[in-house]
Specification:
Two copies of one chain form a homodimer.
Chain A: H1 17-24, H2 28-36, H3 43-56, H4 62-69, E1 74-79, H5 88-101, E2 105-110, H6 115-126, E3 132-136, E4 155-158, E5 169-172, H7 174-187, E6 193-197, H8 203-218, E7 226-230, H9 235-247, E8 254-257, H10 260-272, E9 282-284, E10 301-303, H11 306-322, E11 331-333, E12 336-338
Parallel strand pairs in A: 1-2, 1-3, 3-4, 4-5, 5-11, 6-7, 6-8, 8-9
Antiparallel strand pairs in A: 10-12
Helix pairs in contact in A: 1-2, 1-3, 2-3, 5-11, 7-8, 9-10
The first copy, chain A, binds a DNA duplex (16 and 16 nucleotides) through helix 2 and helix 4.
DNA sequence: TTGTAAGCGTTATCAA
DNA sequence: TTGATAACGCTTACAA
């Protein structure tokens, strides 16, 4: 069926630049210029060429263009394995919008897990099919063998700290946000706190936990009533944290989570076990995903401007692709507290008998 | 910085096939063969070549390969605008896994909305950068001008009915599932029902609403107590449906939703207004997204095997790409009822005073 | 401002 | 089985 030279559905061979050139009575070079550097061709000629392009429905062969020009106008966006998660799509969409508007195509994929898949993506950038890379959430992949960081294309990190520095970075103020989370509970009178974090070495968790501890310290709180649970940002690990909570005696009254999904998993688990929120336990999340407003009770959380995170990151990459040098200092975007119904005053002493 | 011939970070020029050929003492043709048609080269030679490839860390230039071979090994997956939704990621991940395993790279993007973005994607397939297309949920985009369906590359539809037929299609049994939803409520004694659907002309909604009505008909139920609300599958439209419900007198006691997100938005809205679920209203969703288990009460719904949907669709496309002809009859995958806590017996007559 | 011509790096044909 | 050679379709010096 699809043997021989590539053919369109009607059986005719695809239009080439020469076809346009002949039809417009100019050379191929002029067509190319009219398309790529309109300023370099006389308006009159340009118009005639463009009209012919439209009439013949010509689309330049992209691989040929990429081969010759040495640039594929394609960007790889590396997302974490937990792409199923509710946080990243908004970031990715914003990146896509920005890249598209500038003539770039986006490929998304995970560099973690699935060895085989990851390898293919990395190869793609070494294969000169990719002009730039955006790395979300520290998922630059295992560093054995070749790395996307060494492929000689510009790399931008969003919400991540790369192992090799010198790459532009866009962050939210994790530490300040974690302080805001914790102080919110502290202000409500909570003194026994549980911190439900991500993997211990995860960039976000390092900074958020640091913020949590600092808020504790500033409140001159003894660490006697403080617990920490290591999750992985997912609903499932929120459930695990809930089970952990249920076994504690006395139980914490305030729970600081490093992601909304963990907070939601936690909430469901403890309320299913009969613990009332926010009367008996206050829970605060991080991210402000769509579902945060729809769980029961609606989740108090930290709003992250996800679209902005993506848009800014994409813009920085585009600058690099144009050859402009970029600032080396991380760009920091601020999150903010959104108070809803999952947090309330700490239960009074008397009601603590569990 | 990145002017002149493309260079790797260390300043050296990328390895070309000729470099490998020289280093291995063979011709470029042999290297190419060793890589692409291993059977066509003597084992001994092949080994020597492969070793050199590894030693020099050679990756074939993909645009060059695509230009010469006429195939870019890239597939476009067209997702709906509501990609932010919780349903598609699992489908897309399954597609990606299948494609990757077969040497294809996946590009995702929406052909709806954002005129400019969509146009770029369609152009990409006309630009011979894309070998095949998978269309999810009827989002083949506006048909004015060029369409991905006419680009001369194989197209597979998942959970969609394309305007032009002749393309392989993978579906779930929407109608049967909607019957199962409705009968579940009917069996629980509900007689006043609200149907919360997607856009009226949407493929899925047409079939689901048909199933809903058939179940009603089979139960010999008068349509007096039946209401229909047109949503768009999103959380927000679930909220709107909830507000609609709250104004009804008498209120329906059973609500059939065409997506989990609408069911969750609905649930939150009516329970916030003091309506108890499932005591006063039973709600059933469609999809079985991750959050279905985590809303309050946990959502009774139709489980869709999302991974299978994607995997099967991808396999069909891969067959087409190999040139194998494929069956013309739609492949139908079965969904199944998952009973959780949002549905229960219809309230008794006496308690209906609202 | 436009045309000529030389590649970009690979694969496939054909001959050896 | 392997090697020389001619494309694939486009861009860009350079020349006119």
């Amino acid at each position: 069926m699809s043997k021989g030279p590539p053919t369109l559905e009607n059986g005719s061979r695809p239009i080439r630049i020469l076809d346009v050139a002949h039809a417009a009575g100019v050379s191929a070079a002029t067509v190319s210029r009219a398309l790529s550097h309109p300023a370099k061709v006389r308006p009159e000629t340009r118009q005639r060429v463009m009209e012919t392009v439209r009439r013949l429905d010509y689309t330049p062969n992209e691989p040929a263009r990429a081969l010759r020009a040495g640039t594929a106008r394609m960007v790889l966006v590396a997302v974490p394995n937990l792409y199923s998660g509710a946080f990243f799509p908004a970031v990715v969409n914003a990146i896509d919008a920005e890249l598209s508007a500038n003539g770039y195509t986006m490929i998304t994929g995970s560099l973690e897990g699935a060895e085989e898949k990851a390898r293919r993506l990395v190869d793609l950038v070494y294969a000169r099919q990719i002009d730039g890379v955006i790395i979300l959430a520290n998922c630059s992949g295992p560093l054995e063998g070749r790395s996307v960081l060494r492929a000689g294309v510009p790399v931008v990190a969003i919400s991540a700290e790369l192992r090799e520095n010198g790459h532009p970075t866009v962050l939210i103020d994790d530490e300040a946000c974690a302080i805001a989370q914790t102080q919110h509970l502290l202000n409500l009178g909570h003194r026994r706190l549980l911190y439900v974090g991500g993997p211990n070495k995860h960039y976000n968790d390092i900074h958020r936990y640091r913020g949590f501890r600092q808020a504790i310290r500033e409140a001159c709180l003894s660490s006697a009533g403080i617990r920490r649970f290591e999750g992985d940002f997912t609903l499932a690990s929120g459930v695990a944290a809930g089970l952990f909570f249920l076994r504690e005696r006395p139980r914490p009254t305030g729970v600081v989570c490093a992601s909304d999904e963990m907070a939601i998993g936690f909430l469901k688990t403890v309320t299913a076990a009969g613990v009332k929120a926010p009367q008996e336990v206050s829970v605060i999340g991080f991210d402000d995903i769509e579902f945060a407003e729809f769980c029961e009770p609606a989740l108090t959380t930290i709003h992250q401007p996800r679209g902005e995170l993506g848009a800014v990151g994409a813009r920085v990459l585009l600058q690099r692709l144009k050859g402009d040098p970029t600032v080396d200092k991380p760009i920091v975007i601020k999150g903010e507290l959104r108070v809803r119904s999952s947090s309330g005053p700490a239960p009074s002493r008397s009601s603590l008998v569990s």
